[in-house]
Design goal:
With 134 residues, the protein is α/β, with parallel strands linked by helices. The protein is built from 4 helices and 6 strands, in the order βαβαβαβαββ. Helix 3 links the parallel strand 3 and strand 4.
């Protein structure tokens, strides 16, 4: 069962992962990279949908898989909608009842004052880089 965690410990490091929407080229390898990063994450993860102009059913399925990867663990996942259209679709699917959803990365960072690590998931490889803190 999925559970919602409302807070992130202040000063906790967080991984920022770009979301590979269905309309992106190279999506299968990026999708694997995203799920792998979530599987091994030991700190909160922000999944950024800002690069997706709109979401389709495949994207919603992937978001649900992301939530399943952290279910039952002490890892929080946070989604950044990135657009009003994405925000509405997430609301309609009731995803925000299980996972915090913000309109921008800045809002997600302001939510808890967390430091963030940006993840680059090309060909399933992860490279962490300090992105800054709120």
């Amino acid at each position: 069962m999925l559970r919602r965690i409302d807070t992130v410990a202040p000063g906790a490091a967080v991984n920022l992962l770009p979301f590979p929407c269905a309309s992106c080229s190279g999506r299968p390898s990026q999708r694997k990279g995203l799920l792998s990063a979530l599987r091994v994450a030991n700190s909160p993860v922000v999944v950024d949908l800002s690069g997706c102009p709109s979401l389709n059913h495949e994207d919603i399925d992937l978001l649900l898989e992301c939530m399943a990867q952290v279910a039952g663990r002490d890892i929080q996942v946070i989604f950044v909608a990135g657009s009003p259209a994405n925000r509405v679709l997430l609301e309609v699917t009731r995803i925000p009842s299980l996972v915090p959803v913000f309109n921008s990365v800045k809002e997600a960072l302001d939510y808890s004052g967390i430091a963030i690590h940006k993840e680059v998931n090309d060909q399933g490889m992860n490279q962490s880089q300090e992105f800054g803190s709120a």
